[in-house]
Specification:
This protein is α/β, with parallel strands linked by helices. Among the domains are: about 90 residues, no CATH class; about 55 residues; about 210 residues, P-loop containing nucleotide triphosphate hydrolases (Rossmann fold, 3-Layer(aba) Sandwich), CATH 3.40.50; about 60 residues. Helix content is about 45%, strand content about 20%. The protein is globular and about 100 Å long.
Amino acid sequence: MASYLQVENISKSYGDRTLFENISFNINEGDKIALVAPNGTGKSSLLKILAGIEHSDRGGEVKFMKDIRVAFLDQDMTFDPKRTIFDEVYSRMGDISPELREYEAAVASGDNRRLEQAIAAMDASNGWSVEQNIRQVLTSLKLERWNQPMGELSGGEAKRVALACMMLQNAEFIIMDEPTNHLDIDIIEYLEGYLQRSRCTLLMVTHDRYFLDRVCNTIMEIDRGKLYSYRGNYSQYLEKREERYANMQADIDKSRNLLRRELEWIRSTPQARTGKARYRINAFYDLKDRASVNLQTGSVEIDVATSRLGRKIIDCMGVNLSFEGRKMLDDFSYKFTRGERIGIVGRNGVGKTTFLNLISGKIEPDSGIIEQGETLRIGYYSQRGINFKPGQTVLECVQDIADVVKASDGHAISATTYLNRFLFPHDTFTKRIDILSGGEKRRLYLLTVLMQNPNMLILDEPTNDLDIMTLNVLEEYLQEFKGSLIIVSHDRYFLDKCVDHLFVFEGDGHIKDFVGTYSEYREYIKEKESAERSEVRNTTPKPQQQRSHDNSKRKLSYKEQRELEQIEADLKSLNDERTKLETEISSGTLPYERLTELSTRIEEIITTIDEKEMRWLELNE
């Protein structure tokens, strides 16, 4: 396999904190790699160095194979809020189609002769297909309002636009930072399939373990500033990582035994120390460094009390809600019960977050009744993240809520101790919140929600920006949580671990209550779709076998034969019209407005011809 990327001796530090130092690695053609590590250890910084956005601190080299295209998907896309979706994607196409760029410039110039030449170049290079490709990719990502301004998009819609820009680059090497954040599950599964089929080489950071397992064949880990590579999926990585730790611990134990003997030697006869072998003294200090390594890794400790929860939680009766002309809830009635664990799924924009705001009392319904129990104490972890005052520090934010936290066994924990348990050491207490990493902010936000001892947790996309290690701890806590739980999440693994039934938002205000995990729901949908296809096949009259040598082909139905004949007639008509328009354009006598009009019509004709030719092929096959 060809080497697509060679990285040698790159380093990154922030202040006195070293993220990684002098790391080197190689990525070959066809590798699909996931980069894992706790938040704040440099995953995003490493990707940005590779993408050329940031630079290594002390030299080093990043070398891609010559002439390969590299695409980078950042966590957050910056865009022009006034541009339409189509224009934003088109503006990021680079030099993929110089003919198309010249055509646009010719249209803007008003120069008839230049426009004629540009149209001829577009015809010769099939440049009209670029616009069609953009439309196809946007449609596949369920972005159908191409003229919508970027400033009006939700986080999930903006992420899909960023994905479209990445996919249209047709890059041989793709770098992605948290590609599944803010996407609904249908789009995640589409992206999963796209990357599985693609022959691209891939390096990505993701916390989605199903996505990671199904797409990647290698895992790289940043641990104590060093990089380690493991061939295989996430489960195999965990096993091999434990083996590595066991081997390292054995080496450390051996070094400590040697150190004790060397320590006796170094302390012996101090008056003669100057006569000791210098190389042995140097070896002693190297041995001391190896023996002092501590393999223990910090992990979040979640230990908070749950307030007493009465019989009545939240009762919804005949609730209706519309927003901007769209029906969000249609006559919804449900009584939430103590201890139930609900996962909420559905496509972006269908009203999941609005539903959470409604039942938590942040907004009022158009009609119907929502009653909350007297003992209900909601802990709401929202997508928006933590609210803090300008310049506020980590400790000030926590102390605004409480100076002590009640643990599960009833004893009080100081705010500073609780911060330590959430991996905020003492030197971070005076750090301003606005300079924390995205993952650190989300971890602090989770702390502030839990320290209020809620008996009902509402979590809106809790997996965004949390590393896999923190997610594992959160999953364990939620499995033991004694109160009620409502989770909106696109993380299928997280849902499978934490909920026992689903509210499936189907659109137009309809909610389906499905008893089971998300994986069970997907199996149910697949079986239902399979049964529907079988029913269609069984109710469709079986065509007679053809008498030709190819018995696998069936005859077209009467309706299909008529459709085929109509397509052939339409294609002849469209091609005749196209030829006529091209002749008219070539005359050189048309005014600018007429030239523009005819050019637009030719684009429409080419698109229609492509669609009809595709259907003609389907019918003939």
